[in-house]
Amino acid sequence: MARPNARLSSRSMAFVLAGGRGSRLKELTDNRAKPAVYFGGKTRIIDFALSNALNSGIRKMAIATQYKAHSLIRHCQRGWNFFRAERNEYLDILPASQRVAEDKWYIGTADAVAQNIDIVDSYGIEYILILAGDHIYKMDYEVMIQEHVDTNADVTVGCLTVPREEATAFGVMDVDEDLRITSFLEKPADPPGIPGDPDHALASMGIYVFKWSYLRELLLHDADDGDSKHDFGGDIIPYIVRNGRAQAHRYTDSCVKQSADTPAYWRDVGTVDAYWKANIDLTNFTPDLDLWDKNWPIWTYSESVPPAKFIHDEENRRGSAVSSLVSGGCIISGTEVRNSLLFTQVHTNSYSALDHSVLLPYVNVARHARLTKAVVDAGVQIPEGLVVGEDPEEDAKWFRVTDGGVTLITHDMIDRWNAAQ
After folding, report:
1. CA–CA dist 372, 70 (Å, integer)
2. H-run or E-run covering 36
3. Which terms does the record give in the GO molecular function aspect (predicted)?
4. What's the pLDDT score for residue 2?
């Protein structure tokens, strides 16, 4: 058991729920779970929750995986293998592995924790932080855990402050003047406002703090309830609202920002349009998400690659990038790149052009190809002369074109295009 006078973070663990597919990302999650999707040039989505925990002082973590978890597990093994048990540091990956019964996988977010009670017990922690592994944000969890202790809450729920009209897509907290949660409403048609701020509502971030001894008993009780869906948002939190003390924590009180004037950054990149925009936003002159902050770095697996290379300097055949992020290992050969984000080891060839496009690792762009407002999955070979983003009707015959006009290109789509040529 942790020493009672130890820092709160050293008495806590982070339990990351990373088992979901993220079906709204369409073909981007055909072969990987949403937390394993690439983001920002060199990281994966899950790196943000893990980095927040590490930067907050938490050295005990567990990641529950389920849907197509291989790339996620491999990433964590390669990029997060620096924890040392002799220093009382742990990062355990907990796939759904029929630990309770041969026919029982994780059937809800609460069940994912309940099936691993013995493992959490072995950490000897006092507080447990439940995290979603599929959002982009920077947050000091120590602040939230401290508020949980100070208010003597049974659960503290991390909350975003959003306009009331946008809150219909979230689980919404109805709170009193002290931010004690009086009711939890799932995607309400008429969200309740915040006391003193009726135009805004508090929306759940899917982040919860519990005292482990309290949650442990609650999970055992919930596991025996045949009517429960064994879900934090659907069962555990509403139960505590009715029978205990549930406290709302404002994200603005613990978010990590460049300056006091910078808006609190949080993104759910759960659709192709949102994913494209969040990546392209990083090419802005001063992006809202600061990836250059050495005081709150986003840790990840860094492949050993050479620097990016730009070659050719002729008219219509110049390797250049303007207002773009170009990762290590990229070769920009006679290509004009504008307002785009290129992940590791992207290679482009002469007379091609990229504009407002996101290219995942190991993409190769052949000569005379033009991509505008596109997302290209990892390893795709863009054929010579392919033009995307200029004729939506033609693009939609072969690729996925979103409501926002973004074209998603994957291996299977390119195979169909090649077969038809």
Report:
1. 31
2. none
3. ATP binding; glucose-1-phosphate adenylyltransferase activity
4. 55
Enter the tokens of residue 251.
């994200």
CATH class for the region spanning 309-419: mainly beta
The residues, any chain, with a CB within 8 Å of residue 15's CB and separated by 6 or more, are: 61, 62, 64, 113, 120, 128, 129, 130, 131
For residue 131, give both structure tokens.
């995290």
Q: Any known ligand binding at 187?
A: yes
Query: Three-class SS of residue 307?
Result: coil
CA dist., res. 374 & res. 105, Å (int) = 36
Predicted local confidence at residue 106, as pLDDT: 86
In 3D space, the residue among 387, 303, 283, 386 whose CA is nearest the CA of residue 346 turns out to be: 303
For the chain (length 421 residues), average pLDDT per consecutive 10?
72 93 91 95 97 97 92 95 91 79 75 95 96 96 97 98 94 96 93 95 97 98 92 94 97 92 92 98 95 95 95 96 98 98 98 98 98 98 98 97 98 96 87
Sign of CA dihedral 333, 335, 339, 344: negative
Question: φ, ψ for residue 389 (rounded to 5)?
Answer: 100, 5
Question: In Å, how far are 224, 364, 368, 388, 408 from 395, measured between CA atoms?
Answer: 51, 19, 17, 6, 10
The rounded distance, in Å, linking the Cα atoms of 240 and 138 is: 27
- Which sequence spans correspond to the domains of the chain? 8-283, 309-419
Residue with tokens 């703090």: 209
Exposure of 3 by Cβ count < 10 A (0-12 exposed, 13-18 middle, 19+ buried)? exposed
Nearest to 265 by CA among 157, 134, 165, 135: 135
The residue behind tokens 């494209």 is: 276
Structure tokens at 49: 């929750």
Name the DSSP class of 194.
Answer: B
Task: Give the per-residue pLDDT at 100.
Answer: 55
Q: pTM for the complete prediction?
A: 0.95
What pLDDT was estimated at residue 403?
96
What's the CA gap between 419 and 191, in Å, rounded? Answer: 50
Q: Known binder of ligand: residue 171?
A: yes
106 a known binding residue? yes
Beta strands in 148-194 (DSSP E): 155-163, 171-175, 181-186
Which residue, 322, 362, 364, is CA-closest to 345? 362
| CATH architecture entry for 8-283 | Alpha-Beta Complex (3.90)
pLDDT of residue 370: 98
Environment class of 151 (CB within 10 Å of its CB; exposed 0-12, middle 13-18, buried 19+): middle
